Amino acid sequence: MSRFIALPKGVSEQTFAKAIQEYRAILGEDRVLTDPASLQSYMKIMIPETEELHKPSAAIYPRTVKDIQAIVAIANKYKTPLWTVSTGKNMGYGSAAPATRGQIVLDLKTMKKIIHVDEELGYCLVEPGVTYYDLQQYFRKHKMNLWVDVPAPSAMASPVGNTADRGVGYTPYGEHFLVSCGMEVVLANGDVIRTGTGGVQNSTSWQSSKWGYGPYLDGLFTQSNLGIITKLGVWLLKGPPPGGYMPFLMKFPKVEMLADIVKTFMPLRLAQIIPNACVVVNAGWEAAGYFTYDKNGKGTNRSTFYKGKGSLPPKVFQEIMDKFKIGAWNFYAALYGSPEQVALNWKYVSGAFKAKFGNQVQIITEKEAKDDPIFEYRRQLMMGGSTLQEFGLYNWRGGGGSMWFAPVAAARPSECDKQMRIATDILNKHGFDYVSEFIVGWREMHHIIDLLYDRTQPDEMHRAYQCFEELLNVFSKNGYGTYRTNTAFMEKAAKTYGPEMRKIHRTLKIALDPNNILSPGKSGINLDIPL
Asked: What Pfam family is a match, any one (predicted)?
């Protein structure tokens, strides 16, 4: 019987033992773990597959770039694949578990240096283990009037990890890769490159000028397994003056109003009157935020309202909306600038919605919201605050199962309405609820759908897998690409982008990582699997 929990594909126990011995020689015993108890946390998945398929063989913890260079040298020598994570908290996309059994988790959480924060120009340079919360604490400690755009939930997430997976946030910056500037990357052969102007000796503009000279490379290292990002520049926001930040919420009573909501706010978004990556949240998502425990430890969640099988009936959805005083759609946005700018722009925004919806829209500002916890959660998000409120989604449904399906829609009323209807029909057909939010980008919507299910029930596991697969297939046939997916569906999502794209990804992989040691299977790129 093997003394290791799992072995990499094609690697014998003797060969793997030699590799582990060499990893420990450079890192120390305490930073190379192979025992089942230490690896248990890397097997906690929420996707509808067994943990057996995603068992790691080991976990290793570098502290420096030189450590990583030595690690990739050993990985090439013994063909031991490395699954790289920063904090591994992307729960709905696969957590920290490797895409395929037997990979070594290269956990970068021990690389936690905030290397530099420039308050004058508003940028920072950080390592992968730095979290958004760490940055915010740094700003407070040094009394810096700076914000960082955050995803949700953000407290445990890493700017490097979230940017590398092309995540989004809710401030005027929104698109995280767009506001990154300059990477340091270790390649599979151990070479270290600095993108942008970072290759210039004594560069003073590495985090202020994105492009450098020649082909732009940064994108190659996002959603990829072509290199290991060890440093990342992130642009920060300067805090507005007192009275220059105004979050607001608009509630709408009917599901069918989505197209008109989009039609009303998109001109304001394109004109930058509403400058942030605002969000339209449906009742299912909103209700989960109100998950609470009473004094006896009993939670108010989905089962409080419905104990039947299948998706929630419309009548029950209405009961939930009435209970928590939430809309069928809930539009959160914010205004920023001087108090005078905010006051003027609020006239445009409130006037547009009142003219379109009259008394069918309920408009709520901080004054009306008072101590509402979900308004406070969104208020913090839109000013770069750190929170874990969104984990209420998992408590709301229970059962430990979650997959985020993330198609992109052009920000047109008809496109959003069509996606909503297709998703609702497919989810309800398989017995699941439509739980979603539309995050408004520049001219696109990131349509985030949380497929919540019970992992303890084999039938639900099976139905959840089938449901997600149908969502992926039907959305692709309708011309909607997914911008991000979980480890169970990376191969299938990659196929929806066509053979030419897969061929160029494979060509790059062969050129940069011929031994296939960096995160095989990430984004469907794996030299062990023929096209």
From this structure: FAD_binding_4
CA–centroid distance for 256 within its chain: 28
Contact 95, 88 (CB under 8 A): yes
DSSP 312: P
pLDDT band at 330 (very low <50, low <70, confident <90, very high): very high
Asked whether residue 505 carries a pLDDT value surpassing 80, the answer given is: yes
The residue type of 349 is V
| 381-398 mean pLDDT | 80
Tell me if 195 sits within 8 A of 264, measured CB to CB. no
Q: Are 129 and 112 in contact (CB under 8 A)?
A: yes
This model's pTM is above 0.85: yes
Torsion of CA 175, 209, 117, 380, to 10 degrees: -20
User: What's the CA dihedral at 376, 379, 381, 385 to 10 degrees?
Assistant: -80
Please, which pLDDT band fits residue 241 given cuts at 50, 70 and 90? confident
User: What proportions of the chain, in percent to the nearest 5, are helix, strand and coil?
Assistant: 40, 20, 40
CB atoms closer than 10 angstroms to residue 299: 15
Evaluate if residue 449 carries a pLDDT over 90. Answer: yes
CA torsion 530→407→390→283, rounded to 10°? -140
In the chain, what are the domain boundaries? 13-108, 114-238, 245-477, 490-524
Q: How far is CA 59 from CA 30, 32, 62, in A?
A: 10, 6, 10
**CA separation for the pair 332, 391 (Å, rounded):** 19
Q: Decide if 438 contacts 447 (C-beta within 8 A).
A: yes
Residue 79 pLDDT exceeds 90: yes
Distance of CA 56 to the CA centre of its chain: 22
CATH superfamily of 245-477: FAD-linked oxidases, C-terminal domain (3.40.462.10)
pLDDT at position 119: 96
Instruction: Give the separation between CA 144 and CA 261, rounded to whole angstroms.
Output: 37
Backbone angles phi, psi at 64, to 5 degrees: -140, 165
Report d(CA 26, CA 49) in Å as an integer: 35
Taking a C-beta distance cutoff of 8 angstroms, is the pair 88, 55 a contact?
no
- CATH match of 13-108 with 3.30.43.10: yes
| N-term to C-term CA, the chain | 34
| Lookup result for tokens 């929630």 | 312
Topology of the domain comprising 114-238: 3.30.465
| pLDDT value, residue 255 | 96
Q: pLDDT digit string (tens) for 292-319?
A: 645 555 567 888 899 888 999 999 999 9
